[in-house]
Amino acid sequence: MYRNQKSQKLYKRGIEFYTNTLERFVKWLEDQGLDNIWIGDLDNGLIQQYFMYLLPKRKNSAKTYNNTLGVLKTFYNVCLKQEWVEGKNPFDKIDKQPEKYGTKNKPFTNEQIANIKEYVLDYDPYLWKIICFIYYSFMRPSEIRR
C-alpha cells in the first residue's frame, strides 16, 4: 500500500529507491534476528544501530544516509497516518549527516563559457544551437537521457 501511494508521485527510479531502501532495512532486521518485529516495536536504539551500520559497514555517503533516513521516516509517517502504529516517529530522533558538496556541478566561469562558445561556433555551429536550447529551457542532462 505504501509503495502504491508513493508510486503515484515518483518516477521509476524513485520507486526503485524507496523499494530498495525498505528491503535493505528489512534484510538488516532479518540479519539481526528481528525478522518478526512489529513496526510499532521499533525503538530509537535499534534505529540508531541501523544507521550506525550504514556509515562504516555499507560505506554510504552522507547523501545516501540522509535519503535513507527520509524514506524510512516517510514510511513510518504513513504507518502513523494509517493508524497501524501509535505514538511518535522514532526516526525523527535521528540526525541528518552534513553533506559535503564537491565540484561535481561546479558552474563554468564567464571566461570558460566564452572559450567554449568560440570553439563550438568555429567547429560545430549546430551544436551551439543545441547547447543554447538546453540552457534556455533549464533542462538537466539527466532529463535529456531519460
From TrEMBL:
Domain of life of the organism in this record? Bacteria
Question: This protein is called what?
Answer: Tyrosine-type recombinase/integrase
State the UniProt keywords alphabetically: DNA-binding
Q: Mind telling me which SUPFAM superfamilies this protein's record contains?
A: DNA breaking-rejoining enzymes
By its UniProt entry, which Pfam families does this protein fall under? Phage_int_SAM_4
InterPro entries in alphabetical order: DNA_brk_join_enz, Integrase_recombinase_N, Integrase_SAM-like_N
Q: Which residues form the signal peptide?
A: none
| Organism encoding this protein | Aquimarina celericrescens
Where would I find the Integrase SAM-like N-terminal domain in this sequence? 5-84
